[in-house]
Every structure is written in structure tokens, then in C-alpha cells.
Write a structure and sequence with these properties.
Layout (H helix, E strand, L loop, with lengths): L1 H17 L22 H11 L4 H15 L15 H28 L9 H23 L2 E2 L10 E2 L1 H18 L8 H4 L9 H17 L6 H12 L12 E4 L22 H7 L24 E5 L15 E2 L11 H4 E2 L21 E4 L3 E4 L10 E2 L1 H6 L11 E2 L9 E5 L1 H13 L8 H16 L5 H6 L21 E8 L5 E7 L15 H13 L4 H11 L8 E2 L30 H6 L1 H11 L15
Parallel strand pairs: 4-12, 9-14
Antiparallel strand pairs: 1-2, 3-11, 4-5, 6-10, 7-8, 12-13
């Protein structure tokens, strides 16, 4: 009978999590269709956590096409140029509603059973774990849309609340739930199976909860610094933070087509390296490519200060991307050692992490520049802007092609990895930022910053380069170095060598470091906060793109190059041929629009939500906590 009950709930949970939730009020609907006594708290919580791994349909649309694009973890048009697809949004919106239904059911069941004969030794703890998980889901939902409902199962349509109210609620929920967990409670192996992240290790849940509380508190740093400081300091000095690799909140993916299938597994998504990320990688850390690559690739490494081949008729220059107009005809002399682990060199077919997705295109490295001739991109390293390249793009068969660009490693595409929701490096970078802000933290800013880099290097298996890296004063393409104590600003430009791609004529050029007018009016490129966010951005690739996007919305860091503007971009009307060398929040997506079905299915709720946005229901409307 026990197995039958479990099977019944599995079917119920599957129905719950994939049902068509076309209206926001469905978050508020009592989802129990099975006998309540048959449903265990851990089953409902498990269904919510597993569902949030996202089946391939939802993952492609939200994780890949929205978050990784908005977070500039790969090169992709659409959202990065202000584009939007109501179907993509609906897929995510339906799903997150289902995940919240599941975790709210867990909360409701646990609350009802406490103090009754149905209470089990672990029921109170599962209630608190469910509240922590719900806090994460609500933050994820709000960071996409803005105002959302936070109350459910009240028998009426949910009330939308402001982003400020959402965050105040989540911070209080985390504070209370962490304090209420009893670590002395022991669970059976049977119960542990229903927590795919921590197997109900309550110490780890408390650590995750405190680190999550720091994340959410830091989100308020620019708009509500007093609240941010108070909440952050309480969590940071709790003595229980997620600081070790054994404590990573991660869930094992698996091949197939269900909620555990890899979030980046769709073979038709090229997932090319972005120009944003590449400009952070190149020349950062002082570790030469010669020390990272096999003998077979040594001859392809270019000298320092090499810009590449200049093709002004085939590469757009209407962008503030510092290397616009150049194609790099080899491998970078010096690059962050995580780059070659994350993205695989074109033509490196013998690399076990080379991704063959795309068939013949993945292994085709020779492509043409019309009116010029062929280019062989094997063993080269390039990244280009999104946007509208006009006639230059039409003649360029190289810059967006799968086989001619570094692409995401196979290990993240083939559904065999563990999807990460929170890792130690984020804890350390949050502590470093808090310390830089003058908040009380358990370690110095430098110690936390370097520990964050060390944690990331451990994950990537490149710790042998850590000493050299931490001491490096070399500037990357954005003008930022690694060394904590090296805060000397770069000059406005740096001299590089190049060849004219058409004539072969050699020359020198002064390449400007980008002016990020979103941060300190563009006057600062190498202060300690820029270093922290640079390292945090790199470390979060490829698992936490929503956090990368949120940091850029909050701070204007790291530098995001503007999309190319050879022709006007209809969804970014503020970006023009006259201002593309400046940065402006109206040039970057700020949120996701609500699904179109909301206005028709819940007109009052939609009116509430848009009023609380303090702006129109549009991609370019900043959220409350974002840089304005």
C-alpha cells in the first residue's frame, strides 16, 4: 500500500507541476486532488525541487534564451536586444506557478500536522526547509517579473505586492525558518531520498538559507542600504554559511526528457561565448595560454598585444565593444584559465569536452566573408556583439556560426552534470562586497575575494594557477586586474598590433578601454567592487545566469557592451548611431513582461502588478532594486 500511495502522489505531483496554469490565480488554488492523508510533506517538497530543474521546454526558454542571454553568459540575440516572446514567458510562468503550488502544499501539510497524531519527528524541520525553498522560488519569480503574489491557499485571487514587500517577506521568512531548524533530528534513508540537493542534511539547509539571505539582502544594497546591511550582517555572522564544495546546492541531471534533463541540453542552441565574458577573460590573471594548452596548439598562440586582423567591411564597429572590427586569427597569449575549460576552441575535435551538437556545422571551421574569401577559424578565439550588423553581417558567414566560435563545453550540455543553485564562491564574493561597503563580516574583503576565486578554481580544476592569478596586475580588455591591492587605473587606451585583413598591411592601433557610464560615470574600471563583480560573473558561468543578470541590473557591473546598431533596433529605441559609445540602462533588458494571459484572466491582478512596477509592463522597466 505504501508504494501505491507514493505512486499516486507521483502522478498527482506530475499533474500538479505540468498542468496548464494559465492564470496567476492558479498559484492560489488548492491543488490537492489526492486524499490529504496519503500525501507526505517530503513528497510535495520533492516534487517542487525536481520540477524547478526545468524540463527541456521550459529550460530552453527561460534558462537559456532569457537568463543566459540577459546575463551575457553566451552570445544570443532576442532578449539582449530587447526582444521578447510571450510563449517563452508563458512556459516559465506556468511552471514556476506549479513549483510554488508544490512547495506551498508542503508548507500547508506540515503546518496542519504539527501537534497532531500525523506529525513525524522531522515534520517541523521539513516545514522550515520548505519555507527556505519557497523563499528561493519567490525570489526567482520576482527577479524575472517584479511584483508577484506571495500568499497562497487563501481561497481568493492572490494579491500582488511590490518588489520591496516581496523582499522584506523573503528575508523575514529566511530568518525565522533557519532559526527554527533542529539539527538534532535524524532522518531515515527513506526520507533522505526526497531531498535531491542535501538529503535533508539540516546543517546544509541552514548554511544555504543564510547564504541565500545574504544574496537577497545584497539585492537591496542600492535602494535600501539600511535594511540590506542589517539583514546581511545577521546572516553573514551567523557562523553557518555555505563555504565548502561539499555544501554546494546542486541537483544531478540525467539524459532524457523530463524535469531532470539538463537545462542547457537542447542541441540547436549554439551557446557561443559572449563578447561580455570574453572581454573579462582575455589577459586576466597573467596565466599564459602556453601553460594551459597541449603542444599541438602552441603554434597557434599569438604574441601579447595582438589585436588580430581588421575587417572593417565585414565586422560592425557601431558598438562600444573594445575589439569591434577585429577578428582574432589565433589563440590569446594570456587568458583566464577557466576560459578554455568552459568554452572549447574551434577545431579542437580531440578535446573530450568538444560539443558536436549541430552536426556538420559544429565541425566546419572554414567560412567565407563575401567579397573577400574564406577564413579558417580552426584554433582561433573570437567573440562578437549581438544586435543588428546590417550589410556587414549579411556578408559575414563567420561571426555567428557554430564551428567558427568557442562554444560551451559538452559536460554542461549532455545532462550528466549537477545543476548548481548556490556555490561557495558566491558566499565569498558576497562577503567581500559587504566588507567593501563597510558592513561587519567574519573575514576581510581581500580574504573573502581570494577565497571566492580559489573556490571557483577548485571547481574548474585549475588551482595550480591560483598563486600567479591572484598576484596578477595585468588588465583585461575592460581595464580590470585581479590583484586585490592593485587598484591603479589603466590609461584610456593601450597600443596593440594588427594587420589589415584585406591587404595584409601591418599597423598599430590604440584600443580604448570601454567607458562604463553606468558605474561611477565611467571613470573607474579597476576598483575593488569591479574586481569582485568581475570574478563573481566569471565564477557563476554557466550555472547562475540569473544572478549575473541581477548583478548587472543592480550595479551596472560588469561592463556590458551595447548591441551593434548598424540599423535601428526596434526594441531598443533609445540606442542610436549617435550614442552607442555610452552605456544606459535603456540599452539592456531589465525584466520579463508578464504573460499576455494575465491581463485577460486576472485583470485586477494585472492592474495591481503594473501599478506596483512604477512603470509600464515592458522589458526596459527597471525593478525596484535595480540601478535607475
Amino acid at each position: 500500500m505504501k508504494n501505491i500511495i507514493k505512486s499516486t502522489f507521483v502522478l498527482f505531483a506530475a499533474s500538479l507541476l505540468v498542468q496548464s496554469c494559465s492564470k496567476f490565480e492558479e498559484i492560489n488554488r488548492d491543488p490537492k486532488s489526492a486524499n490529504e492523508a496519503q500525501v507526505e510533506v517530503e513528497y510535495a517538497l520533492n516534487g517542487s525541487i525536481i520540477g524547478a530543474q526545468m524540463n527541456p521546454d521550459v529550460a530552453e526558454r527561460s534558462f537559456v534564451l532569457y537568463w543566459k542571454t540577459g546575463g551575457r553568459q553566451h552570445r544570443q540575440g532576442g532578449l539582449s536586444s530587447g526582444g521578447y516572446d510571450d510563449g517563452w514567458t508563458t512556459a516559465y510562468y506556468n511552471s514556476v506557478s506549479g513549483w510554488l503550488n508544490g512547495v506551498n502544499l508542503a508548507v500547508e501539510l506540515a503546518t496542519k500536522r504539527i501537534g497532531t497524531d500525523a506529525e513525524k519527528p522531522y515534520t517541523k524541520n521539513l516545514l522550515q526547509v520548505s519555507r527556505i525553498w519557497r523563499a528561493y522560488l519567490l525570489s526567482e519569480m520576482s527577479d524575472n517579473f517584479g511584483p508577484i503574489p506571495i500568499k497562497a491557499f487563501q481561497g481568493v485571487n492572490p494579491e500582488f505586492v511590490s518588489v520591496k514587500d516581496v523582499y522584506y517577506y523573503l528575508l523575514q521568512e529566511l530568518k525565522e525558518s533557519i532559526a527554527a531548524i533542529d539539527e538534532s533530528v535524524a532522518n531515515t534513508d527513506e526520507v533522505k531520498k526526497y531531498d535531491p540537493a542535501f538529503a535533508f542534511d539540516y546543517n546544509k539547509w541552514k548554511r544555504y538559507g543564510n547564504s541565500l539571505r545574504m544574496r537577497l539582502a545584497m539585492r537591496l544594497s542600492e535602494v535600501d542600504p539600511g535594511k540590506a546591511k542589517t539583514e546581511f550582517e545577521e546572516a553573514a555572522n551567523s557562523g553557518l554559511l555555505l563555504t565548502e564544495s561539499s555544501q554546494i546546492f546542486k541537483v544531478q541531471e540525467k539524459p532524457g526528457w523530463d524535469d531532470l534533463t539538463g537545462v542547457m541540453s537542447r542541441e540547436w542552441n549554439a551557446q557561443l561565448i559572449s563578447a561580455t565574458l570574453n572581454n573579462l577573460y582575455v589577459n586576466l590573471g597573467g596565466v599564459p595560454s602556453a601553460a594551459q594548452l597541449p603542444d599541438s596548439l602552441q603554434s597557434h598562440i599569438k604574441p601579447a598585444n595582438w589585436a588580430g586582423l581588421r575587417f572593417l567591411n565585414h565586422f560592425s564597429q557601431r558598438t562600444n565593444e573594445p575589439m569591434a572590427g577585429y577578428w582574432f586569427d589565433g589563440l590569446q597569449n594570456t587568458i583566464d584559465p577557466r576560459a578554455y575549460k568552459t568554452f572549447i576552441i574551434p577545431g579542437q575535435f580531440n578535446n573530450p569536452d568538444f560539443c558536436p551538437y549541430g552536426g556538420d556545422n559544429a565541425k566546419t571551421t572554414v567560412r567565407s566573408l563575401d567579397d573577400f574569401g574564406d577564413i579558417n577559424a580552426a584554433y582561433t578565439w573570437n567573440a562578437t556583439t549581438t544586435g543588428d550588423w546590417g550589410t556587414k553581417g549579411a556578408k559575414n558567414k563567420v561571426y555567428t556560426f557554430e564551428g567558427t566560435n568557442p562554444r560551451l563545453a559538452l559536460r554542461f550540455r549532455n545532462s550528466t552534470a549537477q545543476r548548481i543553485f548556490f556555490a561557495p564562491w558566491e558566499t565569498y564574493f558576497l562577503l567581500a562586497e559587504g566588507s567593501v561597503r563597510g558592513w561587519t563580516t567574519p573575514m576581510t574583503a581581500q580574504a573573502a575575494y581570494e577565497a571566492g576565486i580559489g573556490s571557483s578554481f577548485e571547481y574548474w580544476g585549475v588551482s595550480q594557477f591560483l598563486g600567479t592569478y591572484l598576484a596578477s596586475q595585468a588588465y583585461n580588455n575592460d581595464g580590470t586586474s585581479v590583484s586585490w591591492t592593485h587598484t591603479v587605473e589603466p590609461g584610456a587606451t593601450h597600443t596593440m598590433n594588427y594587420k589589415d585583413g584585406y591587404t595584409g598591411t601591418a599597423g598599430t592601433v590604440n584600443i580604448a578601454y570601454p567607458v562604463n557610464t553606468l558605474y561611477k560615470n565611467g571613470a573607474v574600471r579597476n576598483d575593488q567592487l569591479t574586481k569582485i563583480i568581475t570574478q563573481k560573473f566569471i565564477a557563476q558561468v554557466p550555472w547562475l545566469p540569473l544572478e549575473s543578470w541581477s548583478d548587472q541590473r543592480r550595479l551596472g557591473l560588469p561592463f556590458y557592451e551595447n548591441p551593434a546598431i548598424e540599423n535601428p533596433l526596434p526594441n531598443l529605441p533609445g540606442l542610436t548611431a549617435a550614442n552607442f559609445m555610452t552605456s544606459n540602462i535603456q540599452f539592456f533588458p531589465q525584466r520579463i513582461k508578464y504573460p499576455s494571459s494575465l491581463a485577460s484572466s486576472n485583470a485586477n491582478g494585472y492592474a495591481q502588478a503594473t501599478a506596483l512596477l512604477n512603470g509600464t509592463d515592458a522589458i526596459l522597466t527597471p525593478l525596484w532594486w535595480a540601478k535607475h
